[in-house]
Every structure is written in structure tokens, then in C-alpha cells.
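Now for today's protein.

===
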Amino acid sequence: MRIRTAVVTIAHGRHEHLHRQRESLLASSLRPDLHVVVAMSDPVLESWRPEGPIPTRVVRAPGDERGLPLAAARNIGAAVAAGAGATVVVGLDVDCLVGADLVAAYRDAVRSEPTVLWSGPVTYLPASARGVDPSMLPGLDAPHPARPAPAPGQRWTGGDPELFWSLSYAVHSRTWAAVGGYCEEYAGYGGEDTDLGRTWAASGRPLGWVGGARAYHQHHDSESPPVRHLDDILRNGATYARRWGSWPMTGWLASFEEQGLVVRLPDGGWARRRPA
């Protein structure tokens, strides 16, 4: 079979969520020609060989002592997809289920405007929706209010690069290669998505939103602000500031400051507060 459209998912743990994502892909109006799964420090996932009508390639991301190599893993997945012949590459967070028309909507958008970095609306599902049948997802549709949410059948371009997120996106493989993908100076949690949005815009190419590409984020426990990722956020924030002249994730940093965990530096940066 000729590979035209591939879905790329990176994962560390979250095996049940990945299996549920697979079920939603199988229920799609258009199934991808290939599912690339990039395992990060996950030997169990590395040995996963799912059966069924969607061919799957599981590849291993190299380890990184700084943390999970999220940026590098997404680049690896896109490269594997392109190497297999895919022109349309859909990136999905492991926690995301796909709406029935997500793959088709992304495919059509990328084919129509191949220089655009496309994103789709994402609904955060409540804990009570665990195990929901994919056919029931439209009844739970409530896209995140902080992101654009065009209606199904609509596409918007000219998107704010700082609103790009890796939960759900799609690109043309040749455009991705021309832009260079994610900056691999980032590792661990935070900053790499906003960097990609800025990089894409700086290349002179637009960002856009696809109303028909609706995804549904499966519930999992989380903390806000994400204190356990504080060191990653400070390190990656400093990388972003060096590259772009300003700090990202300022809402989280302000919350950390209120908790007495970080201090602002005279140069406008941030650092851990030293014990008294």
C-alpha cells in the first residue's frame, strides 16, 4: 500500500490511552495509512506490535539525561513517516482520541494549503468519560476556550504562533523538512511548542486551524501549575528567551513566584529561589 497520510504519536507510559487512541483511529471515516509510535524510555512500548488494518511502526527515541526528549521524538516520528512516503503528517498527543473526521479534515487542509501548520480544536474530557465509545465523542464536544475553534467545515489561517500546541496538528512533510521541525535544544516539559510556532511564523509560513479536525483529550491527573516540571520549565524558558528575546509560560512562572519557588532576575529572567 502506498503511504500518503501518517499519524505520529510519541509516548512514555499512558499505554491504555494509546490503545484507546488506536480504537478511535480505527473508527475514523478515513484511517491513516500508517501509525508511527515513538517510544521514549519505554521498553514495554518498544515491543508493542499491534495487529489490525492500520500498519504501525514503533521506533525508539534516544534517551536524554535532561528529561523526556519530546521535541526530538516528534522530529523522529515525522522523519519516519516521511521516509515511508507520507506527505500528510498528523501529530497527536498520546492522550488524544480523534473525532471521526480528524484525519480526513487534516488531509484535505494540508493538500489544499501545504505551507500551513494546521491545528484542530481539542476538548478536554472529564474523568467520567473514561472508556467512552468513539461514536459518542461529538456529544462531548467542548473545545478548550483558550484556543480558536472554527466550526466543522471551516478553516482559518493567520493563527497566533504562540497558541500552537502539539496535542493535535498536521503538516506537509516537505514543508516540515524545509522549516526544520522542532528545536531539539528543548528536553523535558515546556516551551518547545511555542518555539515551533515562532519558528514557523519566522519562516514566512502561516499557521491555521481546521474545524473538522476535532480531538478529545483523555483525562489524567495533573497539577497546575506543574511544580514537578519546574526545573524543565526554567531551563527551557531560558532557551526560548535566548532564541526569541522573551520568556514563555509566564502564567506558570508567576504562579511559581507566588508560591515562593522562583524569583525574577534583574535581566528579566527567572531562577529557583535559594533557601534562606
About this structure: Residues 5-217 form a domain with the Spore Coat Polysaccharide Biosynthesis Protein SpsA; Chain A fold (CATH 3.90.550.10). The chain has a mean pLDDT of 96. Residues 237 and 247 are 6 Å apart (CA to CA).
